[in-house]
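Help! Submission page says 'invalid entity' but I think these are all valid:
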Amino acid sequence: MPEIEIVLCEPLYEGNIGFTARVMKNFGFYNLTLINPPPIGDEAIARSSHARDILENARHVSSLDEVIKESNILIATTGEVSKTVSNSMRMPYYAPSELRDIIENLNGRVSILFGRENWGLSNEEVAKCDIICTIPASHIYPIINISHAVGIIVYELANIKRGTYELASRTEMDALYDHFNIFLDAIDHQEYKRENTLIMLRRIFGRNALTIREVSTFHGLLRRAENQIRGITKDKE
Amino acid sequence: MPEIEIVLCEPLYEGNIGFTARVMKNFGFYNLTLINPPPIGDEAIARSSHARDILENARHVSSLDEVIKESNILIATTGEVSKTVSNSMRMPYYAPSELRDIIENLNGRVSILFGRENWGLSNEEVAKCDIICTIPASHIYPIINISHAVGIIVYELANIKRGTYELASRTEMDALYDHFNIFLDAIDHQEYKRENTLIMLRRIFGRNALTIREVSTFHGLLRRAENQIRGITKDKE
C-alpha cells in the first residue's frame, strides 16, 4: 500500500476535524492534512478523543498546490449529486470498494481530498485530481457528513479482516453427530425415527458452522444427560 | 431485505443521535429506536440536518425488552476489544460485510443494536441477541464513535451500486486505435517504431477503461491535429 494522506479542504467546523482524526485512527491511518482549517479548539480535541495525536500532528497548509507538490496521486471524493452525464470532469468515478484495488500496488503518496461541508470541492480542485471517488448514497439525501465520509473510505481502504475463531473441523463435527447417536440410545429414541433425526441434526448444525467451544459445550450437555439417565436407571434397578 | 431498525441503547449524547439519523438517511434507512435517550435538543436537530424527520419519528422505548417484543432477529454490534477466546458470549461474530448475506433473505424485522458511548452493550444485552457483528478496527484504537459505527453498518447493508457510466465498447476502442494509426501517418511517425507505439497505446488505454465521451474527445484531438498538419502541408505546396 502507498502512504495515504487524508486531506480536508477548507473544512468549516472544528468538530468535524476532531471526528475525522478519531475515525482515521480507528482504521489505522495517521496522516491528516488541513487546507486553511478553522482554529482547532476544545471541540475538535474532545471529538478526536484518543486520536488527539493525529489532530496535533496534522499538517496545516494554505493551498491545494502545497498538497500536490508532495503527492503522487490525488483522489477527489465527490457527492453523488454533482454527477451528471454532461459533467465529464467528475467522470468516470469509482466506489470506495474499488479504490483499494486501484491504489494498493502504487508507490509514493496518495492524497484523498474531502471538500467543504457546504459546497464540497470546486471544479478547479477536482480538475487537479487523478481519480474521482464517490460514496454511493441514497438519492433522497446523499450529503454525507465529512467525518462519516472519511470513515467509510478508511474503513474500505483498511480492509481489516475480522478476527478468526476456530471452527470445528469435519472430524469434530462427525464426533458430535456420533455422540448424538449414542444420546438417542440413552433417551430410547424410537428406532424408525433415528435416521431422519440424525439428518435433521446435521442440517441444523450444518447451516451454522460451530466453533470448537460450541461443540465441546454440546458434548458436555449430552454427557450430563446420559449420566443423569444412567443414574436414574441405576436407581430403578 | 427485511425491515431494518437501528436501535441506540441508552445513548448519552444527543449529538450522536442527530448524526446517526443523518447517516441513516444517507443510506436509505428510516427506522430509529432509542432506548432511554437523553433529551433531544438543538444539537441533535442541527446534526441530523436534513434527517430531522428520522429524529422526530424515532421510537422511544424504556427497555430492550420492548424492542425484542416486536423484533424477529436481534443483532448486537460490539467492539473488537471485548473479544477474547474465553468470552464465548461474544463469539462467533461477523463483519459488517457478512451481515448483508446473513439477513437479506429473512422476513420480518431485524433490529441492530448499538451500545452506550462509554461502555457499549452489557453482557445481559448481548446475551439476548441472535447475531454478533463487529466492525474490524485498528487494535491501537478500536473504539469507533457510535454514529460512525452506524454509518459503516448502513453503508454495507445498503450496498448501493455506484452509478454506471457508459464505457467504450471493444469496437469503439478498436476504432480509436485505427484512428491513432492514421494519425501516425499524418505525423510521419517512423515506420519501424509503429508497431511498438500502437501496442503501447493499447496498453495505456487498456488499463484505464475509457468512457464513450473520452474516446470521442480523443478522436476530436486527433482529427484537429490531422487537419492542422494537412493545412500546413497545403500551405507549403
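Support: the input was valid. A stray whitespace character was the problem, and the output above is from the cleaned input. The radius of gyration of chain A is 29 Å.
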